[in-house]
Amino acid sequence: MGFFQFTEEQEMLRKAVREFVEAEIAPHAAEWDEKHYCPVELFPKMGEMGITGIFVPEEYGGAGLGHVERAICLEEISRYSAGLGIALMTHHLGIAPILYFGTDEQKQKYLPDLAAGKKICGLSVTEPGGGSDFMGLKATGEFKDGQWVINGRKCFITNASVADVDIWAVVTGQDEKGRALMTVFIIDKDTPGHAPGREENKIGLNGSSTGDVICNDVVLGEEAVLGEVNKGAKIALSAIQEIGRAGMAAISVGILRGCLEEGVKFSNERILYGKPLNRLQAIQFIIAENRVAYEAAKLLTYHAASLKDAGKPCANEFSMAKLFATEAAIEAAKKTIDLMGGYGCINEYPVGRFLRDAIATIPAGGTSHIQKIIIAGNAIRGN
Amino acid sequence: MTTNGAGGIWVVAEQVAGRINSVSYELLNKAQQLKNQLQKPEPVVAVILGKGAEGLEQLSNYGAEEIITVFAEELEIYQNDLYVAVLQALIEEKKPSIVLIGATAIGQDLAPMLGARLKTGVAAHCVDVRINENNQMVAVVPAFGGKVLGDILCPNTSPQMATLKPGVLGKPVPLEKPAAVVTAFDPSAVLQEDQGRIKALEIVREEQTGVPLEEAEVIVAGGWGIGSRENWDLVEELARLLGGAVGCTRPVVDEQWVQSEQQMIGTSGKSVRPKVYLAFGISGATHHLCGMKDSGLVISVNKDATAPIFEASDVRIVGDARTILTALIKRIKG
Amino acid sequence: MSLNITVCIKPVPDPDYYDKITIDPVKKTITRAGIPTIINPVDKNAVEAALQVKEKLGGKVVVITMAPPNAEENLRELLAMGADEAVLLTDRAFAGADTLATSYALAAGLKKSGPFDLVFTGTESADGATSQVPAQLAEWLDIPHLWNVQEFEVEDHTLKAKMSMENGYINYLVQMPALLAVKRSINKPRYTTVMGVMKAKKKPLTVLTAADLDVEPERLGLQGSPTKAGDIFTPSLARKGQQLTGETEEIVEQLIQVLRGAGLNLESLNVNEAGRE
Questions:
Q1: Cross-chain residue pair C145–B156, CB shorter than 8 Å
Q2: Cα dist. A371→A3, A123, A359, A364, B274 in Å?
Q3: pLDDT tens digits, A184-223
Q4: Domain enclosing residue B94, as ranges
């Protein structure tokens, strides 16, 4: 296998996305954070850019590209707003199950509007009882008189109050050993009984909305079933492994670049004892560490994404990328705050927000501990 | 008197709606200086095209020894093909050695077109011109937003042409010279050859509000650091309180905090020289500094202590533009 | 109506870095190492203007530049933005050209690259900022032009256009083919989309050298330039300044003294403003 390298088109795409981000996102990121506002109005603009439907095939109105390109978009956006980054990443997280497991009718019905950013997607799996133990889900789907009736409460759901299309995983039966069987449904936001619940006040990633989503006797037709009945675990799991963790890794790569660039900028401009701060070796060490952390996280993330695009197994690689990048982002943000001294603690500078955002990336897609269990399990099995 | 064979330093005087643009007087002052630097002095000539113009004697006051008027109905509103055809005919007949044109919107269009017709060089929007030891005109031209100045010569073709930015030469002064000889040039032969590819329909003058930047003794200028359209009102209010004009940088125009890009100061905007220049939230990009560097007292407020504007300032305040503006307005109002 | 539209563009050092430009004191050359090359900002407005005409009336948009070989990258960006074809004129023979020689080569390139009904340029480049190429290009092409255009409409091979000037504007009718040099405020250039990037690689980009053009060699480059460059230098703008420090009120108090010292009569202004004469 060759070393990962960006193509000329991918470099151009990065530049185009960066121009968009610098004009439309960078100037507002701090305000979104402060006001806990998810800028839904940017979704149609990201749609025109091709970002919201980046890996959706052209026949469904997408850009027809892959997961490396998706990671580029998420990195560029999260360089300035990891909050919007996770809102977009979750939109993709909801799109992927429809794209990879949906019927042609479901794809025709949902993908064009989602790819265009006219509608926002969400994925509701986690429940108050836990996230990573999703075989222990409590939400249920019952088949009665030719219709499905969904009940349950999901929590810590990104895009909870802004999603137009909500992908739900519920328990619909048991196997012969008594283990839960899961089915995935596509629910339109206006379906009676379906509603967002309480909104969480998060430590970071505040350019996104997070909260509960509730289904109270939501009645759905059979056409709402995504994939096969009782075979939804695979759908939810693959979305979380290969879209969710991939997205969180790319978001953290963006935060890492933010730390690196803000640290360099500050140390070039700040004069101490008549010299720029960057002349101090202690400062240079931080810059070097941030640079290496960014590079390493980037290589892990894009390498895993290129495996996904090549159709090769990539879940373990995304786990490693997610573990490394998210933890490295926290470290880098903390060190950059140290580098900036008092200024690092002032909210006029973005690094404090980077630290809060980086910490908030940890639980999304499974905490670092979960990733370690996965990675160790694979290693022990010889993968 | 005719300048035939005698060379001549020509100034193409600009009129809009019959009123002569003051850059013409700045150029005539400069033409008189060039005349004195030439090994053999040549006459200073003002050429003016239009339907007519008020106050021709002003051209004489500021340095014209001869005035060539080209007045015709068709020339009332600037139309580049007609103006260039007339000037080309005049220059080819009378062979001036130097032609100076104001770098106004009209001048910046007219000069290069004329240069292309005459296959001669034009130094663009110069900040100064002089004559060197070889009796050639040296034009000082800014590049890279004014960060670099370069000398431009036109040694092998004639005439030597330059456009000069309004305001960079300083306020023109009247000279005690005898009244100029006025010669009328009949453009009808040239105008008959017009192919009619362009037709000027109308000229619309926009009302100027407030004190014009070029004439203001106090300028309150703001940049990106002002932060928002709402905060911009503070800049306007301070300017009103101080009886000054409002200036701005490129980002302010792009953000549309000001109504007109005529308020932009810099290499691609106005060159100003007020007695007092107050810069709020302006970082001091080279192209802005070049437009205000000749100001008297420069006071700047910026929260970034390393902002380049401070290097070019007499009084520096490291602080938030909005905070200082608010406090200063409150203090002045008492 | 289907129009052939050509846009002339120029790659320039990024204007955000102009304070980093220095002069080598010995060689007397401009040092611009590490400064990225971008598309001259207002040239994107020219491309936007062209794309809007094409979208309204149909036709084809060709972008052309005279630049070093690496300008291919800048042209690709404009193909990604929506232009249909790109032409790069590149040859050592073009080097050292002033505006007259540049516009001569561009005119030859334009004629070579096909028929044109409309030519767009920006008003000026950020680096040299002479603003002379548009008018001179139109002269070499023997077509009418307008500079500093802030609005235009195409009506059946005639343009209605507004030339902006100090405190006003002039309206013109111009017969096509014609050249318009547009200003920044005429439009807001669109973003390059992901789909645009993917289409760009399939669009034609032609590289032409002096040998491909119908030109007189003595009109090209340094040789064809009537203006010659002399000495270059960086003006010093430094002032010996004082810094005002303290709490906001203390700073303002000092500032008031500075303004009074400069001859401003703040009291009378104050009275007038409050209308308490």
A1: no
A2: 24, 20, 15, 11, 65
A3: 999 999 999 999 999 999 999 999 999 999 999 999 999 9
A4: 9-192
* 8 Å CB contact between C112 and C208: yes
Interface residue ranges in chain B relative to chain A, Cβ cutoff 8 Å: 304-306
List residues of C whose CB lies inside 8 A of any A CB: 76-77, 80, 191-198, 200-201
Residue ranges, comma separated, of all CATH 3.40.50.620 domains in chain C are: 3-219
pLDDT of residue C75: 97
- The minimum CA-CA distance between C17 and chain A, rounded to whole Å, is 14
Residue B202, pLDDT above cutoff 80: yes
Rounded to 5 degrees, φ, ψ at A126 are -60, 140
A335-376 tens-digit pLDDT: 999 999 988 998 889 999 999 999 999 999 999 999 999 999
Instruction: Please give the backbone phi and psi of residue A297, each rounded to the nearest 5 degrees, phi first.
Output: -65, -40
The pLDDT-based confidence of C199 (bands split at 50, 70, 90) is: very high
Residue A277 has pLDDT above 60, yes or no: yes
Cross-chain residue pair A51–C196, CB shorter than 8 Å: no
Interface of B with C in 205-264 (CB under 8 A): 205-206, 208, 218, 240-243, 253-254, 261-262
CA end-to-end span of chain C, whole Å?
A: 67
Nearest CA in chain A to C200: A9
Number of domains into which chain B is organized: 2
Q: What CATH architecture is C3-219?
A: 3-Layer(aba) Sandwich (3.40)
Which of A93, A241, A83, A80 lies closest to A166 in space, CA to CA? A93
> What was the pLDDT predicted at B4?
41
Contact A271 B304 (CB under 8 A): no
Size of the A and B interface in Cβ pairs below 8 Å = 5
- What percent of chain B clears pLDDT 70, i.e. is strictly above it? 98
- Whether chain C has a CB inside 8 Å of the CB on B125: the answer is yes
Rounded (5°) CA angle C215-C218-C223: 130
| CB-based contact A297:A255 (threshold 8 Å) | no
CA distance B199 to B80: 10
Instruction: Say yes or no for a CB contact (<8 Å) between A50 and C195.
Output: yes
Q: Which chains does chain C touch, 3 or more C-beta pairs < 8 A?
A: A, B
Q: What is the share, in percent, of chain A residues with pLDDT greater than 90? A: 91
Q: What residue spans define the domains of chain A?
A: 8-120, 122-234, 241-380
The class level of CATH for A8-120 reads mainly alpha
Helix, strand, coil % over all residues of chain A, rounded to 5: 55, 15, 25
* ipTM attached to this prediction: 0.90
Q: Check if A115 contacts C (Cβ < 8 Å).
A: no
* Inter-chain residue contact C77 with A15, CB threshold 8 Å: yes
CATH, range A241-380:
1.20.140.10
**Confidence band (pLDDT; 50, 70, 90) for A171?**
very high
Higher pLDDT pick, B37 / B215: B37
Same domain, B173 and B25: yes
Question: Among residues A358, A364, A362, A339, which one has the least CA distance to residue A257?
Answer: A358
pLDDT digits 0-9 by tens, B123-181: 999 999 999 999 999 999 998 888 889 999 999 999 999 999 888 888 899 998 888 99
Chains touching chain A through at least 3 C-beta pairs below 8 angstroms are B, C
Q: What would the two tokens of residue B74 be?
A: 């068709």
CATH of the domain at B226: 3.40.50.1220
DSSP classification of residue A241: I
- How much is the pLDDT for C269? 52
- Hey, are the CB atoms on A270 and B304 less than 8 Å from each other? no
Residues of A in contact with C201 (CB under 8 A): 8-9
CB pairs < 8 Å spanning A and C: 47
